[in-house]
Automatic annotation (TrEMBL):
Protein name: Phosphatidylinositol alpha 1,6-mannosyltransferase
Signal peptide: none
UniProt KW Glycosyltransferase keyword: yes
Enzyme Commission no: 2.4.1.-
Domain Glycosyl transferase family: residue ranges: 193-338
GO biological process: carbohydrate derivative biosynthetic process
PANTHER family per UniProt: SULFOQUINOVOSYL TRANSFERASE SQD2
Cross-referenced CDD domains: GT4-like (cd03814)
């Protein structure tokens, strides 16, 4: 099978969309399929032997290092030259719309993966366009042949927009990388020399992640906050949490070691369609506290595989973190239960489902929808 992946984000940007695209392309190559990636530039022109076609882009206002793809004839040319059997639209918004238009003109079926809550993203960046963004996202997904969503919350969200042919497609986790055995006593002691409980966050330091909620957590007695990642809010967060450890961006074995060396993991953002870092923490043997909204609702069963907090309740996050800090047995129990469940979610099985179930479904003869 020949698969063209049109993605809103790719290397050197490191985020959930990029990671998922990499896993999809890796699996396609391993299983004998051919792929091409179309992504906003600048960046590398190939990924592990797979061509990456770079198109014109502009930096996102207030986040200039995050490129947004622009309409570019290179998208149509790339698809026409490659002659794909299916076009995979990764988190389509701007470049995805261009890819969709090109695919329809070429008569190629499309599978869209919903991965970004654009309306929530706009609200956090104080752009008064959430209703417009929702309308745009709904229109895009109504025009593709099949839409895959990562969580039941996302399913309901797109269903309310009138999107049909929706299917749950969750994310895998790199079980060979994220493992409790990677815990480092030396790293933990360096972070918490006085024996503090290490509570960590991993991800972009951007408004929509709501990392600022960790300020109150950092004030809990006996807690050392560790922040892994980078982004536009880092400087402000460092000022507000002077006692926290900021590691910057980590990857590969360094990231896995950092995850496993935490005593608890926190993800406070309400706009997550899935929340991959929750799974990575669970696979690393670390108990999780997550917001009771969006994707984490599918990944964390309160008081069994982690703890959830109500973002509308003042002090809710600090209260749940304080429970974990005070109760090592609870930490161990939650971590063990979560690790047992996440052990079934390998990337190989998840991407295999994408290819064999979802790609092949749209290849069946079907009447193409007329242009909306």
């Amino acid at each position: 099978m020949r698969v063209a992946v049109v993605t809103e984000s790719f290397l050197p940007q490191v985020n959930g969309v990029t990671n998922t695209v990499r896993q999809v392309v890796d699996h396609l190559r391993r299983t004998g399929h051919q792929a091409i990636i179309v992504a906003p530039g600048p960046g590398p022109s190939s990924y592990d032997g797979v061509p990456v076609v770079r198109v014109r882009s502009v930096g996102l206002p207030t986040y200039r290092s995050f490129p947004i793809g622009l309409p570019d004839a290179a998208v149509h040319r790339a698809l026409a030259d490659f002659r794909p059997d299916v076009v995979h639209l990764a988190s389509p918004i701007a470049l995805g719309a261009v890819g969709l238009r090109a695919a329809r003109r070429l008569g190629v079926p499309t599978v869209a993966v919903y991965q970004t809550d654009v309306a929530g993203f706009a609200r956090h960046y104080r752009v008064r366009a959430d209703l417009l963004a929702s309308a745009w996202v709904g229109r895009l997904h109504r025009r593709v042949d099949r839409t895959l969503v990562p969580s039941t919350t996302s399913y309901a969200q797109l269903r309310a927009m009138g999107v049909g042919d929706l299917h749950l497609w969750r994310r895998g986790v790199s079980l060979d990388l994220f493992d409790p055995a990677r815990r480092s006593a030396e790293l933990h002691a360096r972070w918490a020399p006085d024996g503090e409980c290490v509570v960590g966050y991993v991800g972009r330091l951007a408004p929509e992640k709501q990392v600022r909620r960790l300020v109150e957590v950092s004030r809990l007695p006996g807690v050392r906050v560790v922040v892994v990642g980078d982004g536009p809010e880092r400087e402000a967060l460092e000022r507000r949490m002077p006692g926290a450890v900021f590691t910057g961006m980590l990857g590969g074995a360094d990231l896995a070691r950092a995850f496993a060396s935490l005593d608890a993991f926190v993800h406070p953002g309400e706009s997550e369609t899935f929340c991959q870092t929750v799974q990575e923490a669970q696979a690393s043997g670390v108990p999780v506290v997550a917001v009771a909204a969006g994707g984490p609702l599918d990944l964390v069963e309160h008081d069994r595989t982690g703890l959830l907090y109500d973002p509308r309740r003042t002090g809710g996050l600090e209260a749940q973190v304080a429970r974990l800090v005070a109760d090592p047995a609870l930490r161990a129990d939650l971590a063990a239960r979560a690790a047992g469940e996440v052990a079934q979610r390998s990337w190989a099985s998840v991407v295999g489902q994408l290819v064999e179930e979802h790609y092949r479904a749209v290849l069946r003869p079907a009447a193409h929808r007329s242009a909306a």
